[in-house]
Amino acid sequence: MKELSQEEKSVLEQFMIPFFHAGKRHPLFPGKNEVEVEAGLLGVSAEELINYRKNFDENAKQGALELLKEDEIIDLIDNLPFDGEETIVAFGDSSTEDHQGWFSVLKHLLEISYENAGFNFINSGVSYNTTSEALKRLDRDVILHDPDWVFVSLGTFDVQRLNIAPQRTLIPLSETWENLNTIHEILEVKVQNPTLWVTPTPVISELLNSNPIYEFSIDAEDLEQVRQLVSGKRGGIVDPKGTRMGDGEPKAWNYLGDGLHPSLSGHINTAREALRTLVEVHSKS
After folding, report:
1. Taking a C-beta distance cutoff of 8 angstroms, is the pair 64, 105 a contact?
2. Global pTM?
3. CA nearest to 136, candidates 184, 169, 179
4. Residue 221 belongs to a domain with what CATH number?
5. 48 in any annotated domain
6. Residue 161 belongs to what domain range?
7. How big is the CA angle at 171 (ends 147 and 263), to the nearest 5 degrees?
8. Tens-place pLDDT, residues 209-254
9. Per residue in 143-181, is it b (16+ CB within 10 Å) or e — as a string?
10. pLDDT, tens digit (0-9, with 9 covering 90-100), for 41-82
């Protein structure tokens, strides 16, 4: 196998390996869960891939431990609607699939906080998914797990403006609305507890547009329209005003260098907001 340059390794570590799990993209392939197969596709050894993932998981755990230093978080945990045996699914795109993302932080936080916890955490995030792509896999990736709680974190990649066709978003807003409504209607029938909607995070356009690995841009106005659609849903709304990455302008330290994907600090912010929303939903019920 050709040895990667430091630049190639940096791109892999930041923008590819955390967001790639072959079984999610190719669920029917017999070798989908073999680490050697995934490693070969990524151009690294199986040992390297295992170590990368261990490090990402440890980062998420450290993020959870940082949250547990906050008095508010301890109070929130005491008021969560869980007994430690729930199946919790996160259905989303890149920020959800991220191996050191907000859902991984939340998983570690709950496992640490509940003695003898028997939670079943299902990460059903697939990077760069639009709402149309996600809708097609809703049954397989969510409903078949018989979840008690479902987070939905979608919409960011609907508003891609491809470099080759910047005059339109990839998915029209009307179609995003229809897709989210359909997802909502199905979840209301199939899942006992209210759906928990995670609003899209803003992007830092200057960083995104200058990154050569992407063939699209995302406009703040387009993303705000999707955030408003999500914030209008029934259920729990995680960060309805979209300010968790910084009041006013989003802060660069809450993102990777692409200005699109949250950094660990950004994911910690989302996990904190998810806890707040869970307690809010529980108090209303």
Report:
1. yes
2. 0.95
3. 179
4. 3.40.50.1110
5. no
6. 58-284
7. 60
8. 999 999 999 999 999 999 999 999 999 999 999 999 998 899 999 9
9. beeebbbbbbbbbbbbbbbeeeeeeebbbebeebbebbe
10. 888 999 999 999 999 999 999 999 999 999 999 999 999 999
